[in-house]
Amino acid sequence: MGQPLPGNVRLPSAPPGRKRSDSVGFAIVGLGGYALNQMMPRFEQAERAHIAAIVSGNPEKLRRVGDAYGVAEDARYSYEAFEKIASDDRIDAVYIVLPTGLHAEWAIRAFAAGKHVLCEKPMALSSADCERMIAASRRADRKLMIAYRSHFEPYNLEAMKLMQQKAAGEIRLVRTEQSYRMGPTSPSENWRTSRALAGGGPLEDFGIYGLQSALYLTGEMPESISATTFRPAGDARFAEIFAHVSSQWRFPSGAVAQLVTSYDSAGTNFAHVRGTLGALIMDPATSYSGQKMRLEGQNTRDLSPGDPAVQFAGQLNNFTDAVRDGATIRTPGEMGLRDLRLIEAIYASAEAGRTVRLAPDGRRRS
Ligand code: NAD
Questions:
Q1: Ligand 1 centre from 57 Cα, in Å?
Q2: CA within 20 to 30 Å of 243's CA: 66, 176, 262, 361, which one?
Q3: How many structural domains does the chain have?
Q4: Same domain, 123 and 168
């Protein structure tokens, strides 16, 4: 809490212009790398979303970011003053961009203040916390969306469509990998290596994109999972989290998926689907930009269905359409809960050293 402004942040040179009268006012909670570098600059491109308030533990950051984004001085909140947002009518929704272990607590506080919640992925660190968040959203009668941006990104949307149309035939194999090599660090200096804030590590952070891809490309839920984890001894980066998590899934159709994620191998981010007639190769698959996709088979071709950069505003548009018009949220809390159940099944299998069988909603069968 109270981290300084990250060194690589470029703040806008002039505050954004005014939005239409039904624009949804957001309070941004957590002014870290993703909020400042990716999402906050994208609000301008959203149809009816604007930054109405910011919440941070660092007064200097509140001042600099608040000035740059034209946030009123009395809409710059400390974490201690957060509850006061309840009576601030400029704020309709809270966007939670905090370390993952804090999502549940702050989402529940936001619902208690009567606000809608857009929450970064992964939704939380346990399915129990996801259930508490969904219950709080229902009690408050406010919307809850998980910021799974790939559901608004043209390459992934096209891939979903192609797989539904059986463009590679019947799906037999899926392989996904999300890896990068983390520099020297430790839990006290980087929340991503702290079990309390990051869970098991790479799977929740980055591997969740592969988990999501395996689900939306096959359109199925796994009926069983077997997994292994690895944590090297004597490496401060992995004092609390895993270095690699690998799992094998079997789907009711007979398709299998192999998912690998690592914080200790050279960077990659791909999804491959192999069917009876061909293959879909996405590499990189779920980045902020630079996606590449190739359909191999009878009519091999590279596909470029649109600009990946639209994913950020697209997700804001879906959320604000839900808040203002009751539109269906494509990535609701229930999806975040489903994914946490699968993550828990992966860790349970690795710990027990055996295959875990699953019900269609992702709960473990006894
Ligand atoms: P970050 O470390 O850059 O920022 C975290 C912010 O939280 C910092 O400003 C820090 O001061 C604040 N904070 C408040 N309480 C804290 C505490 N107790 N410990 C540590 N920091 C605390 O992290 P980030 O990369 O911006 O990630 C934030 C969230 O966004 C995570 O849930 C992450 O999974 C998600 N994220 C999503 C994407 C995406 O593509 N959708 C990309 C990156 C991160």
A1: 13
A2: 361
A3: 2
A4: no
- Of 149, 175, 192, the residue that ends a domain is 149
Using CA atoms, how far apart are residues 317 and 327, in angstroms rounded to an integer? 10
Domain extent, residue 143, equals 24-149
Mark out the alpha helices in the chain (DSSP H runs): 33-34, 40-42, 59-69, 103-112, 127-140, 154-164, 195-198, 202, 208-218, 310-325, 333-352
Write the DSSP assignment of 32-78 as a string of letters: SHHIIIIIHHHGGGSSSEEEEEEE-S-HHHHHHHHHHHT--GGGEE-
Q: Which residues line ligand 1 (CB under 6 A)?
A: 1-3, 30-35, 57, 97-100, 102, 120-121, 147, 149, 191, 197, 205
Judge contact between 295 and 277, C-beta under 8 A.
no
CATH number at residue 68: 3.40.50.720
Q: Which residue CA neighbors atom 38 of ligand 1 most closely?
A: 34
Residue 95 carries which side chain, given as an amino acid letter? Y
CATH code of 275's domain: 3.30.360.10
Going by C-alpha positions, the residue among 171, 264, 263 that lies closest to residue 213 is 171
Residues 93 and 180 in one domain: no
pLDDT at residue 133 tops 90: yes
β pairing state of 279-282 and 264-275? antiparallel
**Half-sphere exposure in the Cβ direction for 255 (13 Å, CA):** 24
Of 121, 148, 263, 347, the active-site residue reads 121
Q: Are residues 249 and 128 in the same domain?
A: no
The verdict on 218 and 336 lying in the same domain is: yes
pLDDT in tens, 167-221: 999 999 999 999 999 999 999 999 999 999 999 999 999 999 999 999 999 999 9
